[in-house]
Amino acid sequence: MGIFFSGQKVCFADLKHPCYKMAYFHELPSRVSFQEARLACESEGGVLLSLENETEQKLIESMLQNLTKPGTGISDGDFWIGLWRNGEGQASRACPDLYQWSDGSSSQYRNWYTDEPSCGSEKCVVMYHQPTANPGLGGPYLYQWNDDRCNMKHNYICKYEPEISPTAPVEKTYFTNQPGDTHQNVVVTEAGIIPNLIYVVIPTIPLLLLILVAFGTCCFQMLHK
């Protein structure tokens, strides 16, 4: 996985994998509640992250490791994912079974930290990212899940449908190779091939006409000598 920036949408060239965006805010006042994160993702055509299996979990972990590697200045800050519970009319079920994905996914994959979820008033789920915290019973607080109060302020991760390479300029989108590939990312900021040809050809038309006129004039003079 090549380098990408906080808030940068990342897609994969094989078009089989979803696109993702890690929204990290260094300053705590800029971070958002669960509902604000959910709306932010949906406003851009995505959803708050749902995770299908351990493979996808590991992919997200690798992205976060790249984003937060030493020297980037990124500090502790958990990330909202799209798992939550409302518990209405389901009192007979155990608390961990009440959690559901906000995008409607039926995935049963879970990656809870030890002794989580604690339930009670904590109904929305974050992915831990606290590299400076002392390890607890479940080890370092990195990438496992924890339920938290929904009004707490955190970073968040969005998920989008696979994106076809665009034919018009797209701001802040990276296309990379398959997950785990060591090649560099390709930044897609240019227009497609056909629009680029148009931009090149149109400005040259006056020059071509001038050359044609000069050539015709020269031939005309030579014929009348």
TrEMBL record:
Membrane topology designation: Single-pass type I membrane protein
UniProt-annotated location(s): Membrane
InterPro entries: C-type_lectin-like, C-type_lectin-like/link_sf, C-type_lectin_domain, CTDL_fold
Record's GO cellular component terms: membrane
Transmembrane stretches, start-end: 197-223
Source domain of life: Eukaryota
Pfam families for the chain: Lectin_C (PF00059)
Primary localisation category: membrane
Keyword terms, alphabetized: Lectin, Membrane, Signal, Transmembrane, Transmembrane helix
PROSITE patterns recorded: C_TYPE_LECTIN_2 (PS50041)
Protein name per the record: C-type lectin domain-containing protein
Residues covered by the C-type lectin domain: 15-159
MF (Gene Ontology): carbohydrate binding
